[in-house]
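2024-03-11 09:14:02 INFO worker-7 job=invfold-0412 stage=load source=structure_tokens
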């Protein structure tokens, strides 16, 4: 399932909702390529720390955990940066997943 988010400048981002297969297979690289340096660094440091304590055998565990939560974290960061759902269907999907409860672009707040 995908969601379209737009900011005030008209930039539209099409983001996936749910499990992140790219994070599952490629670790922190999808976050890095999206320009999400904060979460790329957090994923890398977490995998490195777990890998050090488990002599490298457990470095894949944070990757599996982040696969379940990364897309939600990315969407929340976009919302904090001023992006909003472009239509009511995207708004309702994000609300159903518990990600957002704000009005879509073009809707009046409090009306």
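2024-03-11 09:14:09 INFO worker-7 stage=emit residues=111
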């Amino acid at each position: 399932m995908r969601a379209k988010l737009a900011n005030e400048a008209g930039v539209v981002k099409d983001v996936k909702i749910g499990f992140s297969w790219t994070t599952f297979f490629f670790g922190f690289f999808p976050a890095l390529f999206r320009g999400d340096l904060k979460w790329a660094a957090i994923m890398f440091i977490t995998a490195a720390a777990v890998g050090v304590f488990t002599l490298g055998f457990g470095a894949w565990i944070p990757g599996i955990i982040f696969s379940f939560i990364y897309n939600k974290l990315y969407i929340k960061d976009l919302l904090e940066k001023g992006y909003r759902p472009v239509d009511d269907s995207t708004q309702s999907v994000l609300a159903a997943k518990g990600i957002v409860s704000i009005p879509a672009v073009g809707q009046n707040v409090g009306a």
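2024-03-11 09:14:09 INFO worker-7 stage=report msg="The helical segments are 21-26, 29-33, 37-53, 60-80, 88-96."
2024-03-11 09:14:10 INFO worker-7 job finished
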